[in-house]
Specification:
about 25% strand, 8 helices, alpha+beta, 10 strands, disordered N terminus, seven-stranded mixed β-sheet, single chain, about 230 residues
Length: about 230
């Protein structure tokens, strides 16, 4: 379900958080389109934290600690990379207004990144929004094989360790379904959301901003589902 936004209506970090708390999020038609619209899908993608599983090949990569994982180290670089047009993803929904809004949300402490670095280069990662015990995944990117997948595995382990109960993916893709993502009806999603935002969770349970805080082995032990 799409709800066009009022272009005269100022969207602030507080408005964004209120929208997330009732199951609505903003998007743009494309990176070059200055407008925004609200979305409230009939079917919502979620990644059940207790059912999350890691393919064995990816588990080997995670265990090798090939990437240095950092948290909230370079938000601007992550969202810029997520907005880039690539051979695989020629069109993105992250426009200039989205980048500004979520940068403000990051400054307010409600947006976070999990970043994969190798040899001093940012090679993959993701960003999302935290509200209570809910985390809303927004976008991810990779410049090296498995970099974004490793970041996702570290995110899930961090959420489980910190007491989060909901990982919202907005929509499901074949990629996310491989980790256990499912679509649920809006009414069921709202019940999960209401319960999650009413709870407290700790995004920095492993370490402060700027560091990953856990080895690949510890991350896999905390998830424990492989296939």
């Amino acid at each position: 379900m799409t709800k066009p936004s009022d272009v005269a209506f100022e969207i602030t970090p507080e408005v964004l958080l209120k929208a997330y708390s009732v199951g609505i999020f903003p998007m743009a038609e494309s990176a070059s389109d200055p407008g925004l619209f609200w979305l409230e899908p009939e079917l919502r993608g979620v990644l059940p934290l207790e059912a999350f599983h890691v393919p064995r090949r990816l588990a080997r990569t995670v265990r090798q600690d090939r990437f240095q994982i950092r948290v909230d180290h370079d938000f601007d670089a992550v969202i810029a990379a997520c907005a880039e047009s690539t051979a695989i993803r020629r069109k993105t929904w992250i426009n200039r207004r989205i980048r500004t809004l979520y940068r403000d949300l990051f400054a307010a402490g409600h947006a976070h990144t999990v970043e994969a670095w190798r040899e001093g280069r940012l090679v993959g990662g993701l960003y999302g929004v935290r509200l209570g015990a809910a985390f809303f995944g927004e976008s991810m990117f990779f410049r090296e094989r498995d970099a974004s997948k490793v970041a996702l595995v570290h995110l899930v382990a961090r959420l489980k360790h910190g007491g989060f109960t909901l990982l919202d993916t907005q929509f499901t893709t074949e990629h996310l379904r491989g980790f256990g993502a499912v679509d649920i009806p809006r009414e069921e999603y709202q019940l999960l959301l209401d319960a999650a935002v009413a709870k407290e969770a700790d995004f920095y349970g492993w370490a402060a901003a700027g560091t990953g805080g856990a080895t690949g082995e510890l991350v896999l032990q905390s998830i424990s589902h492989t296939s």
